[in-house]
Structure formats: C-alpha cells, structure tokens
Amino acid sequence: MDKVVVITGGSRGIGRATAIAAASRGFRVCVGYASNEAAARQVVTSIEARNGKAIAVKCDVGSESDILALFKAADAFGTLGALVNNAGIVGPSLRVDEMSAGRIERMMAVNVAGSILCAREAVKRMSTRHGGQGGVIVNLSSVAAKLGAPNTYVDYAASKGAIDSFTIGLGYEVAGEGIRVAAIRPGLIDTEIHASGGEPDRAHRLSHMVPMKRVGTAEEIANAIVWLMSDDASYVTSAILDVSGGR
Ligand code: NAP
After folding, report:
1. Does the record's keyword annotation contain Cell inner membrane (predicted)?
2. Of 39, 72, 82, 168, which has the fewest Cβ atoms less than 10 A away?
3. Whose Cα sits closest to atom 23 in ligand 1?
C-alpha cells in the first residue's frame, strides 16, 4: 500500500506544490492547513483529479492538540512514510528593538516548536525502534538562517537557524532507526508568504541580489523535497540543501 506523507501548511505555496508532486509519486497526501480550508480542499481536488489520494486536515502547528489530531487523521489514512515540516510564518519587517514578545513567541512556536512536535509524532510512528517501517522527515529552513535577515525579521532567521540544528541532531539520533532527516533552505520563492509579511512584491524586488537573477518557483522547491523523500536520496541524512539560485 502507498505510504502517507503529512505536509504541514500544504494548502498554499511550497506545501501545495509539494503535495501535488508527492501525490504524483504515489504518496497518499495528508494536507495540513491553518485556516484556508478552501485552498486545502482545492489541493485535495486537484490531486484526486489525477487519481491521487489526499485528505485535508486543519492543524495550526502552534497548537500541540492540533498536531496530535493531524497525526491521528493521518493514521486513519494509512501508514506514515514521510513528514514535510513546511508550515512557517514571517512577520512585518521590524528591527529586533521594535519586536513584541508576542510576535517572537509566535514565530518560535510555529516555526520551531511546531516542527519539533510534528517530528516527534512522525518518529513515534516511523522509527524501527517503535516497530515502524522507517521514513523521511524534510524540514523547511531558509537561506535567512545564513543571512540573518537584518532590519526585516531576525527572529524568523533565528527560527530557521534552529531548524538547521534540529535537522542535523535529529538526523543523527534516528539514523539507525530507518529514518532520514534533511532540510531545504529555499531562497526567494514566489509565494504569498511575502504578502503575509506586508510586502507582496518582496521576492521580485530583491531578485537582482540572486546570482541567477530570478526568483524561484514553489515547484522548484517541491522537486527538491520529493527527491529527498525518494530512494534516490537513500544515503542523504542530517543534510541541508540550498535551493536558492545561488543566494
Ligand atoms: P505561504 O505561501 O505563506 O504558505 C504558508 C502555508 O503554511 C499555508 O498553507 C498556510 O495555511 C500554512 N500555515 C501558516 N501558518 C500556519 C500555522 N500556524 N500552522 C500550520 N500551517 C500554517 O508560505 P511558503 O512561502 O510556501 O513557505 C513554506 C515554507 O518555506 C515556510 O516554512 C517558509 O518559512 C519557507 N521558506 C519560504 C521562502 C519563500 O521565499 N517563499 C523562502 C525560504 C523559506 P493556510 O493556507 O491555512 O493559511
């Protein structure tokens, strides 16, 4: 039977493209979404239109109870074979000395704690130590982890730095238990995340700073994610791959 992949934030952007690419490679796709149910349903419909299998499950990864419900729904859908920790948020451009505690806490709760808690649930199911059949965890980092995002969102960059360390450490921890863990560091990708930070045109405005002189597409990130999920990447773990046009 085809394995299930849980994709957090699978309703739009990179998560949506990954859901469609994973379905085309035979995964049963559990599409997590925070609030945009219509977008999540549209992803499910487009997968089903191509004879794939998908379900949509509401899950704010800032909530542990939502995460437990997401994995319970995934269990009912089939055997878990992969997790894509894709859900992530930015905030309006601010200096650190202008940021509220609430903003910083939410950034860390969603981008860091949410990814770690989802990975915990995935390891419980996939680790051979717990009777599982192995699997793959792909985390979404960002080139911001290396650039620091000064005057914009240093808190976001720091959350992605945490994802890089988490990827390395968890990968070592479960390498002998059939689970590979890797991260992608996207560069400037054309999605709605920039609008959510208050600047819809941000990626295009900064594209001249990319060595390849263009923004990337969600599909270009999804292609790297599904490669990491595949047996073609069978010797890849604790690894972080820049998919950034050289940025
Ligand atoms: P996006 O277009 O803004 O889409 C965000 C997705 O995450 C949506 O499906 C959204 O669900 C979901 N989401 C938002 N908050 C959530 C929460 N609290 N819990 C669960 N799901 C939540 O984002 P994107 O550009 O595709 O980014 C995806 C990942 O790539 C993020 O981790 C981001 O940091 C990373 N990344 C993006 C870029 C870029 O340039 N786009 C660059 C580097 C890294 P709803 O539809 O329900 O709102």
Report:
1. no
2. 72
3. 193
CA-35 nearest atom, ligand 1: 47
Instruction: Count up the domains in the chain and report the number.
Output: 1
Separate counts of helices (H) and strands (E) for the chain: 10, 7
- Ligand 1 contact via 188 beta carbon (within 6 Å): yes
Q: What is the pLDDT of residues 139-156, one digit of tens each?
A: 999 999 999 999 999 999
Residue 18 is encoded by which pair of tokens? 């990954």
Q: Catalytic residue at 172? A: no
> Is 241:225 a contact under the CB 8 Å cutoff?
no
For the cut 90, the answer to whether the pLDDT of residue 1 exceeds it is no
Supply the range of the domain harboring residue 114.
4-243
The one catalytic residue in 33, 153, 156, 172 is 156
Ligand 1 in contact with 132 (CB < 6 A)? no
CATH number at residue 190: 3.40.50.720
**Cut 0.90: pTM above it:** yes
